[in-house]
Amino acid sequence: MELEEIINIIEAWAPPESAEDFDNVGLIVGDKSAKITKTLITIDCLENVVNEAIEEKCNLIISFHPIIFSGLKKITRDTYVERAVSKAIKNDINIYSLHTNLDNHPRGVNFQIAKQLKLIQTKILIPKVGFNGGMGMIGNLKESISEIDFLKYVKKEMNVQSIKHSPFINKKIKSIAVIGGSGSFAINDAINSKVDCLITADLKYHDFFKGENKILLLDIGHFESEQFTKELILNFLKKKIPKFACIVSKSITNPVNYF
Question: What was the pLDDT predicted at 225?
Fold first, then answer.
């Protein structure tokens, strides 16, 4: 199957036009006329992922995060970006990324988080003008639970080791906003939506003050919040191209470690 055919199927699902202006989505490395034999799906396209693609005989890597985010002035082996790109080129491996276009998809990254948490009555947190979708998602638990029980529930369902959170607001939790990856920009939107909690990642020290005792803020980690995106992409491809060979990467790409 030609790469261009695969790209057309993906982009009909998650149009590049729906990505944020700062993003770099689409074909990052490769040739649209290439014949694709097998695909590896990953969150990050690092050198160890390219090595895995070589071992698994995959000549296409579909990554959530684009390995080239800003311009490259050289391709050596001095940085993790250059090492991944140079090895992919050397081994005729194509790299395609979908990022904020999948964040903005109505059944994309944040829908996947909501599904993992078994939220009901879901809707978009921040609708994107001109598109059927937007950033984040709001939903409800079937029953209200205490803040402590909710933290335990999130740890279990999202498979996280630890959670950073703002001071407890001393109320039961039922309505939840979720936004995968860096979501501090959505704090005020979550407060205005009258939810009890916002689950996201990459909150800075002063962000935790912004809860203002109106909302519980949870930082579960960037990778952790997006970890189920690989299965989202895999399931889509298997449904649209049943005979297309694709696998989920087993390589560890989360750069954050816990002691």
Answer: 98
